[in-house]
Amino acid sequence: MEQEEVGLALGLSLGSSGHHELKEQPSPSSRSWARLEPSLSLSLPTKDSRLSAPVRIAAVKRELPMEEDDEATADRALYSVASSALVAADDDEGCNSRKKLRLTKEQSALLEDRFKEHSTLNPKQKAALAKQLNLRPRQVEVWFQNRRARTKLKQTEVDCELLKRCCETLTEENRRLHRELQQLRALNHPHPATFFMPAATLSICPSCERLAGAPATTTTGADRPKAGGGPGRAAHLFSPFTHSTAC
DNA sequence: TCATCACCGGAATTTACATCA
DNA sequence: TGTGATGTAAATTCCGGTGAT
Fold it and tell me: Which residues form a coiled coil (predicted)?
């Protein structure tokens, strides 16, 4: 991005004359900046300076020893400087705050469209999209980062809700199994007068590994979790006399 | 093989702004 | 109409992973 574009994008026309150490300013990428900074001995105009932001950025560009193919790093550095200039602009007005970009509906829509296609961008795509949107590549990059974060958060919420429902289902299944267990125990230790099935007939079905010994009327495949052989396994009750291979 | 560097993305956090009671 | 609480999203910072040299 040309320095003039940066200045125009920021809508800045600052008056300034002083200088400000670059490393004191926050940047979009502190690591990139930290790697740049040691090689720099330049100082930047501050809020007190009388240079316009584009001029200041141009000054930085002259002093930054960058390769032409290092546009991403350059962009971050320039953005950092531009941000600094913006802060300086506010300071000029006695308001030490950064301005916040609000994307237009058109910009948001296009970003969303691109995100639907690819949730990440390569440098060329980023630059092209930035140009198309009249934004800085760094802004596009940040938007995609935040968008991915929002997507992940949304998915986490969905997963959480699913787990919650699953937990409720399992809890209910657990209650039901406890009731059945009590019934089975009653069968296993019946009063002599009401005895009708010997304890020995309660067994595990060899084919499905489910407990046998009572009618298989309470548990169906529909009301059990499909996977994993959960609580439903032991609850599948059947009579060894009526059990078939359908089990 | 190891060290260093550059780059990128994720996570956490900060901050500006909009909305609403 | 002014104000504080709150939510949202842009921006920042830090950190770890990875590939190139």
Answer: 160-187
Q: Does A123 contact strand B, using a CB cutoff of 7 Å? A: yes
Question: What's the pLDDT at A192?
Answer: 57
Query: Tell me, what amino acid is at A71?
Result: E
The CA-atom distances, in angstroms, between A102 and each of A138, A143, A148 are 15, 11, 18
CA-CA distances (angstroms) from residue A172 to A88, A122, A222? 62, 49, 14
For chain A, the domains span 3-92, 102-191, 197-247
Mean pLDDT of A101-125: 88
Q: Which class is domain A102-191? A: mainly alpha
Chain A 137-156 residues whose Cβ is under 7 Å from strand B: 141, 145, 148-149, 152
Those residues with Cβ within 8 angstroms of residue A80's Cβ, 6 or more apart along the chain or in another chain: A22, A25, A26, A27, A28, A29, A33
